[in-house]
Design goal:
Oligomer: single chain
Strand order of the largest sheet: 6-7-8-3-9-10
Structural class: alpha/beta
């Protein structure tokens, strides 16, 4: 049976562990009403330890205890002790902890100090005065280990969420620390990249690293994990050997966890081009001369939930930005069967931001009526009016800056009916 008391396991493991969390309770100063961790005992052996549990249960806070962000960065009230080797984390400087411990954050973009992949991989070593030749070797090896040699030299700003997550893993590998912490490291990875990451964990484990992973996605860790801690409400509720945990089957979902089996995806028929919904046609987007989106024809059916999937860097986020009017396109447009949603409306209709519209490239085409035919109302065939609390400002003048006219949604039906196919109201 799984041990429901982490104290026994922690006491047994303490002698061989580089990490020792002894009866720790933590309360954040920003949320003093309840502790985020209570009486946590945790002393992992070299190998892979999984922290699982619901969002907000305290998994990330356990990692912060180990990498020193608690108490050196986050303001907390803490009892109990945390040690790395023989030293108390509370008495160590962050740079000392950095020599023993590397972390991949839940949102990797928040941990970068540079703007380019190669310099980010070298950053930690440069601060520890590692010789340049050794830094180059470590960086090249990390790129190979993570499978992102094609990202060498790239600007971090041009990378997708999944690519950024891979770079964060590579910089942790490049630090060559004995302790490695991963906070939801697969949240932005595609299925192929998850398999590659699992293989990387296996290689790091074989090197004798102490690896601690806080994760919701669990299936890919089967056969890798040595022990699993289920955290509930800031407490270690259960401790399982890895093999026993993955034998729980459906009981894992009763504990509030995701499936332990690899999820399967069933294909559905493609929507008809005539189907009501949001249509994307001929849309092209490029960054730095590199084409990242080229969609001939796509429909998101009305009244249905559509998921966008694909490999990291395929253009999923860029497509979402196009649909929201946040990304400029080189060609094409997107619109709904009832109302224009790009090229025209998102640039002309921005809540309380019309004062910036005249500076945009869409201003000239909008004011000359190039796209206004998209706004023509026929037989009141419009989407439901926006919420009454919304207020919009429209540009009605060709002067710069234009005259702003404010309308509210209760006037929307009358206003929309005033649009003509060839110009302004």
């Amino acid at each position: 049976m799984a041990n429901t008391s982490a104290d026994t396991n922690a006491a047994t493991n303490r002698g061989a562990s580089m990490v020792d969390i002894d009866n720790v309770s933590v309360t954040y100063a920003a949320a003093p009403e309840r502790p985020v961790l209570e009486n946590v005992n945790f002393a992992p052996q070299p190998g892979i330890t999984l922290l699982c549990g619901a969002s907000g249960s305290g998994k990330s806070s356990v990692l912060r205890l180990i990498n020193g962000l608690i108490p050196h960065f986050h303001a907390v009230t803490q009892t109990g002790t945390v040690r790395l080797g023989s030293k108390l984390v509370a008495d160590m400087q962050l740079y000392e902890i950095g020599k023993s411990c590397a972390t991949v954050f839940q949102n990797p973009r928040t941990q970068f100090f540079t703007t380019e992949v190669d310099s980010e991989l070298a950053f930690a070593g440069q601060n520890f005065q590692v010789p340049a030749d050794e830094l180059r070797k470590r960086s090249a090896a990390a790129l190979r280990d993570v499978g992102i040699t094609d990202l060498a030299g790239r600007s971090l700003r041009t990378l997708s969420g999944g690519q950024v997550q891979k770079v964060a893993c590579a910089q942790a590998v490049a630090q060559t620390t004995p302790i490695m912490l991963f906070d939801e490291p697969t949240s932005n990875l595609d299925p192929a990249a998850i398999i590659e990451f699992a293989a990387l964990l296996g290689r790091l484990k074989a090197q004798g690293k102490t690896i601690i992973i806080a994760e919701h996605r669990l299936y890919f860790l089967r056969g890798l994990v040595d022990q699993v801690l289920l955290i509930v409400g800031g407490r270690v509720a259960h401790t399982y050997p890895g093999e026993e945990f993955f034998g729980l089957g459906a009981k894992a979902q009763e504990l509030g966890l995701r499936t332990l089996e690899k999820p399967q995806l069933n294909k559905v028929p493609e929507p008809s081009p005539a189907e009501r919904g949001v249509h994307v046609r001929g849309v092209q987007v490029s960054f730095g001369g590199r084409r990242v989106l080229d969609i001939a024809d796509m429909c998101f059916p009305e009244g249905k939930v559509t998921g966008i999937i694909g490999p990291n860097g395929a253009g999923k986020t860029t497509l979402a930005r196009v649909l929201c009017g946040l990304q400029r396109v080189q060609a094409g447009r997107s619109w709904s069967c009832r109302m224009c949603t790009a090229n025209c409306l998102p640039k002309a209709l921005r809540r309380r931001r019309a004062q910036n519209f005249w500076r945009s490239s869409a201003w000239n085409s909008w004011r000359t009526g190039t796209h206004c035919r998209c706004l023509a109302a026929r037989n009141n065939d419009w989407c439901a009016p926006p919420p009454s609390a919304w207020t919009y400002q429209f540009c009605f003048s060709t002067s710069q800056p234009p005259v702003l006219t404010t309308i509210t949604s209760n006037w929307w039906p009358n206003y929309s009916a005033a649009w003509q196919p060839t110009g302004k109201p």
